[in-house]
Amino acid sequence: MSPWLRLIIYLVAAPVVGGLLAGIDRRISARMQARQGPPILQPFYDVLKLLQKENVVVRRSQNFYIFFFLLLVIFTGGLFFAGSDLLLVIFALTLASIFFVLAAYKASSPFSFIGAERELIQMMAYEPMVLLTAIGMYMVTKSFQVGDIAAHSSLLVLALPGVFLGFLYTLEIKFRKSPFDLSCSHHAHQELVRGMTTEFSGRALAMIEVAHWYENVFLLGWVFLFFASIPALGIAAALAVFGFVILVDNVFARLKWQTALRSAWLVALVLGFGNILVLSLLR
Amino acid sequence: MIGFKESPWIIHYDASSCNGCDIETLACLTPLYDVERLGVVNTGNPKHADIFLVTGAVNEQSRSVIRNIYHQLPEPKVVVAVGICASTGGIFRECYNISGGVDSVIPVDVYVPGCAARPEAIIDGVVRALGVLEQKQKQMSAMRNSLDKTLYLRAEKTDAPEILTLQKIAYQSDAEVYGDDSVPALQQTLEDLENEFDRRPARETTVLGARGVSPDLSEDKDRVVFLKAVVNGKIIGSVRGHAVEDTGFLSRLIVHPYFRGRGIGRRLLGEIEAFFPHVTRFEARVGHKSKLTQGQLSSRGYAVSRQEPFTPAITWVYMQKERK
Amino acid sequence: MILGPIAAGMGLLCFRAEAFRQWSVGLLTLGIAAASLALVTMVPVSGLKLMPGNLHGVNLAFLASELAIALFLLYVGFRARRPLIVLLVAVQSALMCWFEFRHGAHLQPAYNLVVDKFSLIMALINAFVGGGICLYALGYMREYHGKAHADVPDRRRMFFALMMIFLGAMFGIVFANNMLWLFLFWEVTTVCSFLLIGYTQTEEARRNALRALTMNLVGGVAFAVAIVWAWHSAQTIEIDRLVASNKSLALMPAALLCFAGITKSAQMPFSSWLLGAMVAPTPVSALLHSSTMVKAGVFLVLRMAPVIQSTAAGLAVAMVGAITFLIASLAAITTSDAKKVLAYSTVANLGLIVMCGGIGTHEAVWAGILLIIFHAVSKCLLFLCVGVVEHKTHSRNIEDMSGLVIDLPIIAVMMLIGMAGMFVAPFGMLISKWAVLKAVLDAYPALSVFIAFGSAATLFFWVKWMGKLIEVVRARKVLDQHLELGERTALYGLSLATFLACVLFPLISIYAIEPYVKNIYGQSGGIGQGNIIIMLTMMVMILLFPLSFINYGRGVRVTDAYLGGANLQSSVRFSGSANQPQDVTMGNYYLREFFSEAGLTKWGVVSCWVLLAGLLATAGFFAPAPGATAQGTPEHFEQPAAKPFVSAVKSL
Description:
The complex is a heterotrimer.
Chain A: H1 3-32, H2 42-52, E1 56-57, H3 62-81, H4 86-107, H5 110-141, H6 146-151, H7 156-159, H8 161-174, H9 202-226, H10 231-251, H11 257-282
Chain B: E1 9-14, H1 20-27, E2 41-42, E3 51-55, E4 58-59, H2 60-72, E5 78-82, H3 84-88, E6 98-100, E7 110-112, H4 119-145, E8 151-154, H5 160-170, H6 172-178, H7 184-187, H8 190-198, E9 225-231, E10 234-244, E11 247-255, H9 264-275, E12 281-287, H10 291-299, E13 303-309, E14 315-322
Parallel strand pairs in B: 1-2, 1-3, 3-5, 5-7, 11-12
Antiparallel strand pairs in B: 4-6, 8-9, 9-10, 10-11, 12-14, 13-14
Chain C: H1 3-14, H2 18-42, E1 48-52, H3 56-79, H4 83-103, E2 111-115, H5 117-148, H6 156-175, H7 179-197, H8 203-234, H9 239-244, H10 247-264, H11 271-276, H12 282-291, H13 293-308, H14 312-333, H15 338-359, H16 362-393, H17 404-407, H18 409-423, H19 428-443, H20 448-470, H21 485-503, H22 505-521, H23 529-547, E3 557-558, E4 573-575, E5 581-583, H24 597-622, H25 642-650
Antiparallel strand pairs in C: 1-2, 4-5
């Protein structure tokens, strides 16, 4: 498949897949709590509704940042699926997150402010592990190009078990779910209301939702990369990881940010860096 | 349009409830009732919510909170009063600190009676609210699309109830600005408003003091004139004014919050000025903190002429303009 | 170009009139800018070689000025009762005198000045960024003495003279090929920085200036030893020959020069002098941090890169850089003083550059030079902006900068540009960081962990500062928006430069950096074309951002922020308990209970001292003793014991 084709498929299919995954997530979560749960298409209904709602803002420019967040998240995923440089993908993702955080700062409400601060801490927590994941993949495949990594003949996860586990940990943070829903409060009625998204409504909130869908698909794509030499296994693994995230979401209470930061760095250092250290010694 | 009926997000506020209705409301989220199957999410954040669910009667503490939250809900929005206290004040109605049901502060769309309201009733109320919500959404989007076909007409006495509702919605923002319930527009009753349609302006109040000029009482223009801005048969804006001699007095320029910033207010001003062709001087009265209206007036050439304290919270600002 | 500013500086000392000062500084800035541009057209790829032969007379003149400086420093040392300073000055001048009289006549330097592409880049930075700072300083210092710091004695005559001499000496450092010459200019910058840091003459300023002096003198001693050693082992005192000569012979002098570079560029055991230098007026900080002083240090380290590449010494240098980067980045999180954050960020970025030098591969050097360029421009812009903010709001606390975007919109936007230049994706610094990461992975993968954690910390402290700038939690403060002509020129110029450097970096890379790297290594790094296109796409996206403001306020309804419904007609005032009106206050996280500045510094200093000791020990141990000359050692001389060790570390 040519990179352009993959790119176009991503742009079109990612929101559909992401939305469906979000619907499935809510359904499974409901079942885990002995409830029936909303329809699978619920996330789409929500977004459609939000698009028709009035746009209420605190600061007039706050929604521009959200637009760029969405744009850059799509760009990130696009780069990834077009097989571009993995480090560039990470930088683009970071830039997107920066826009999201700045949007929350711009909204200038105490809840979004605390959300922004915590999101920054979370970014600081997962950033090393994300970089180390890219580095680990480079160590095995000798390339940062996603295309080359995907085409590598061996199963990456075998060489990078520690990195994979560490990456799983960062995924927990990136999905912004319990125990790491510090910044956006995935479940309602918590001390920071809706965190970063508190002051966004209507179209801006819809954009945030859609951005999360794109982001989730991209992250699962990255999980796939660990198993890329056996595509079927890769898809199964991506889905299994998604299921695991849901399970963790339902069984864990939220962590304090101190714990989140400390544990994430410990994981990056022990699992991620340890793995890389072993790799380089064996080489 | 898909969406509104499928995705009601709720903010639940306890005005002064005994917690009976609150517990029943939260019971709706439990596995037995699981309202999430209807797409309901209890957001706890007005900016995300569609439905404002209030329990308990309104007391002095909760009045401003209800108003704030209502104001922060994006349109279209629906208010559901859950329980008898929220609907009418219930057994607390006569208490010294209770001002009545939720509708004494904000317009309510659905009333769910009961003490405490049963979860089934609450769910039923929410589902009914969905109907209202969708209807409002349809109306509003239709109205938004035909704003260019807005009609500016003279209002009749029969329009009084609709204008009063609009007035109460439009002045919510003023109530927030001025802090208490001293805003007279929010105190006005329907009879009072209907009487205003019949009222003839008192000559004595004129600045010129032109008593003795015999007015033709049968003439229409001596009455208070109400203009309305109508879209698809719904009133979204209004202004009133009367002429005494060569001075026109304008007041109560109101536009539905959802349709503000689209030139409707300015257009209404132009229309009512045109209604009094022989008047050479217009005087408009606004509250000192109503910056939006003041801005509209000054953009049409009005300048502040004098100020007059009205209540501790409000000072009237008189703005005037000479017609060339 | 070297003499011009110095002469002008001397001239400035003699004249008191302010108008004269303005004209001469302005003209001089233009002059050096024009001269450096002219130089661009003259320099061939291999470098322009000037002033051949042993100019013994000139050398003696240099020695005389060195001795004059030494005498002055001795006086300073005695007056401040700092025996260490006296000792260091005595050692280095004794060494230099001895060397000059013993060997001065035999030295056969082929060229005393060499201008290659790298020097040219440095010269351009020096001319434009340094010149911009001088222009800025004209207006700034007037305001400084006028309103902001009326208690400080007005010694502007000396101030501008020193700034000019500083610039001249910096040109000297980047052009000099003869190490004796280089050494003089090196010492001149040390003295100038000492005087400038102590400008305000307060107790704190004096203390910090002395600290800076002491630390830089340690580097100076290392430099002097390096010269002697280089003569004895490699029989040359020329930088280019030293680099080209046998690695094993050049290793010890190179290690010593790196040590000197590390002191000058304020790496970890010595970082405190740069942090202390903040007490000086802002233009001084900007000059020290962006274009001169510290850049001289990394310049030297990068020059030595080919020698220390894949040696234990190189690894030690790289480790020092890496540890400094991580620790300074973490420390920057804990502080809310804007200048201090900038200072820590400088130290961190210099750490990255030193790391590049220590790695020493062609990719690393490429990345290092790129870092120097981007860092100089962005950091200078940020310093100058903070200076303006401090004058206008009388605070340089980041918390007080909340809402700056409505109070001082132009300055705030410039600061945002500068910060974006410092760490955001398509902008310069990130390109370089990316290249550093790749270079590190190919050389010492283990060091990548420092970059991974350090960048995360960098992200945190920049974004929270950006957030403070753009948030709006109160009504607009009416502030004086006026900027002096010089300030305006410098600020707009630097904003444009930040921006242009990012857009034009492929050109800079192709025409300046790659030829230099190729000249030394025979091959050159760079970023693939596809990636450049992606970068530029991102750049375009970011540039679209201001366009979205066309839509400002359209289609939205403005309401108050959610405060549990208890708002009091405002987003930041609410009715608290017992109906007491309360104001919302929002403060950034500084994670002080998590990282302590003192603790971090302590660890950094200790580990870096160990590394530096290791650096000198390994280089000294494996290098042939001074006196064992080149003739006996074959070209493929290898360090017997070092080899396995280095390769073991390399495999990490």
